Amino acid sequence: MSRSIGLAHIIRHDDGTSSGVWGIYTLQSAFQPIFAFKEGKLLVVAFEGLIRPFRDGEPQSPMTFFSTCPAADRLHVEALTRTLHLLNAGACLPQEASIFINFDPSVFTERAVADNALREMRLVLHEAGIDPGRVVCEVTEQRSASQETLYEFVAALRGNGFRIAVDDYGADDSDINRVKELRPDIVKFDARWITQLMESGAGFALLTAMVKSFEEQAIRTVFEGLEEGWQLDLAEKSGASMVQGYVLARPELAPTSFHAFGKAGEETVSATAGAEPATATPRTARPTKAFGRRTSP
User: Fold this and answer.
1) What is the mean pLDDT of residues 109-133?
2) Which end of the chain is more exposed for a tag (fewer CB within 10 A), N or C?
3) How far apart are CA 100 and CA 134, in angstroms?
4) What SS3 state is found at 166?
């Protein structure tokens, strides 16, 4: 192994992947596939980068890791995790797949900070061989110290060729305003909120109407956190653009087995992969189940 030139806290491995070191933690990238519905089948179209911390070789909760980071370090840790995901995506993911990475708006307090982050991203993308058009920047739910700075930063991301996603969309007025202000390409629906709406006919009707409204605005939708087959059935019926969750495929540490999918959009995958890596097998449309966890007798 050797340290990457010019990339602090990054370690390169012989298999082409990278890991990071931050204090007592070793950081690795995990990727989870995102699927799109097309003609009764599910196609892999993207992957979300997820950080996986280890301490003395033992896996730790990401929440624990981030909660122990001093506020002064958050900006640097955010940059490190994005760098890891982009380098590893370039090393082990299908070349046509989109890559979802997270941004915490609260760390972008000044325009100079945002500009520096963009410069670093351009350098990393060049090294990883990734076109900016493949990158989807997820704006998380944390508040920004300056909304104006956030909007300027998102505009700069878009100006550099990146796409924008609003993450954890729910029922709050703040979420609706966030979509209006940021004009994202993609909205990712909060997993718990999706499940609540799917439990009743009225809730599902509201969910379907919202998906339709976004689609009419040329905003694609992602239902994340799907864990059961009935949720997948209703997601398809609602018209959601994309789906993500354990019912389809669990995250895998880089290097992943997902290269077996080939080019994004060219392979179909099983909708019942569960905890095992999804395989390239057709999925045919299934009868839609009733609302909630159980079908009516």
Assistant:
1) 90
2) C
3) 9
4) strand
Q: 183-217 as b/e, with b when 16 or more CB fall inside 10 Å? A: ebbbbbbbbebbbebbeeeebbeebbebbeebeee
255 class by beta-carbon count within 10 Å (0-12 exposed, 13-18 middle, 19+ buried): middle
Q: How far, in Å, CA of 102 to CA of 140, rounded?
A: 7
Whole-angstrom CA distances from 197 to 31, 241, 292 are 27, 17, 9
Burial of 153 (0-12, 13-18, 19+ CB in 10 A): buried
* pLDDT at residue 218 in the model: 95
Question: From CA 253, how far away is CA 268, in angstroms rounded?
Answer: 22
Tell me: the pLDDT tens digits for 132-163?
A: 999 999 987 555 556 777 788 888 899 999 99
Cα radius of gyration rounded to whole Å, the chain: 19
Q: Does residue 196 have a pLDDT over 50?
A: yes
pLDDT for 179 equals 87
* Angle subtended by helix axes 191-198 and 229-238, to nearest 10: 80
H/E stretch holding 129: none
Task: Name the residue ranges covered by the structural domains of the chain.
Answer: 30-261
Just give the CATH number of 30-261: 3.20.20.450
* DSSP H helical ranges for 169-254: 173-182, 191-198, 201-216, 229-238
Q: What angle do CA 220, 121, 180 make, to 5 degrees?
A: 35
